[in-house]
Amino acid sequence: MAVHVERDGAVAIVTMSRPEAMNAFNTEQLQALLDRVRELSSDSTVRAVVLTGEGKRAFAAGADISEMSSKGPAEARRFGELGHAIGRGIGSAPQPWIAAVNGYALGGGCEMALACDIRVASENAQLGQPEVTLGIPAGWGGTQRLPRLVGPGIAAEMLLTGRRLKADEALRIGLVNAVYPSDELLPNATEMAQTIANNSPAAVTATKQAMRLAFDVPLADGLTFEAQIFALAFDTQDQKEGMTAFAEKRSAKFSGE
Ligand code: DAK
């Protein structure tokens, strides 16, 4: 049981590893993921993150049902807050997070993918929010993030029926951006992360912040924020380097300054 981090240049690959339980989250596993989210967020050498699950069967099959089954309301609240802290941590991280959904992403597993900025999946992936079949509502952001991503009608169907979507349907509704054969998922997710990592970290972080804000504030406030980050970009080395490199017909080398 662990959450491993590997580095591929400026990309960090985070693997949730509890294969004996389909990478389901017990408290220990949640805390380990939260610790990794916090460490990576404060590491300026990391410019993009890929989140995946150990093996080929599951990204994460949700919260650990055997651990949850004996919880009372106070413990359930603490368990819920831990999951929320991870989602908030990914959202406020300076780097984009890409979920490489390599199999089942159910319940809390689907919600961790939803907390990421981008989702790609393997052909054998299945995503769903089966909480209602267990007598509970979704509790790690699914009721809020899923409607924002796929629209209220499809989200309502997923959250109220608990139906699992196969990868092709997830692709069609925009729940994932691309589907790859199992062996090609991580290389493709990592390549996307490398593309992001080669861009200006300052501009990438500002863009992520602005896009996240789009769901929290009225349009006028979001546009004001966009105008501010756009102006501030002209006080960065990255802006000078990016535009100088264009004029000199070479690739930009961004420092994040
Ligand atoms: N928890 C614990 N163990 C799990 C698990 C889970 N979610 N999912 C799978 N496992 C375990 C199985 O028990 C089995 O263990 P052994 O019997 O071998 O010891 C092993 O993983 C392999 O699973 P299966 O034998 O079932 O494998 P199959 O290929 O037949 O089926 C499956 C794979 C993923 C379709 C199936 O295991 C399954 O349906 N799993 C449960 C999926 C699910 O319902 N997930 C949603 C969990 S509820 C909260 C906020 C959020 C949440 C809760 C509270 N608060 C605000 C308080 C989140 C809730 C959820 O995520």
Q: Could you walk me through the main structural features you see in this protein, from its secondary elements to its overall organization?
A:
It is a single chain. By secondary structure, the protein is of the alpha/beta class. The chain folds into two domains: 3-197, Alpha-Beta Complex (2-enoyl-CoA Hydratase, Chain A, domain 1), CATH 3.90.226; 201-247, Lyase 2-enoyl-coa Hydratase, Chain  A, domain 2 (Orthogonal Bundle), CATH 1.10.12. The protein is 50% helix and 17% strand. The protein is built from eleven helices and ten strands. It has helices at 27-41, 65-68, 73-92, 108-115, 142-150, 152-161, 167-172, 182-198, 201-213, 219-233, 237-247, and strands at residues 2-8, 11-17, 48-53, 58-60, 97-101, 104-106, 118-122, 126-128, 165-166, 179-180. The chain has a six-stranded mixed sheet, with helices on both faces. The longest helix is centred in the N-terminal third of the chain and has 20 residues, at 73-92. The chain binds 4-(N,N-dimethylamino)cinnamoyl-COA. 4-(N,N-dimethylamino)cinnamoyl-COA binds next to helix 2, helix 3 and strand 6. Residues 21-22, 24, 61-66, 68, 76, 79-80, 83, 104, 106-108, 130-131, 134, 136, 139-140 line the site of 4-(N,N-dimethylamino)cinnamoyl-COA.
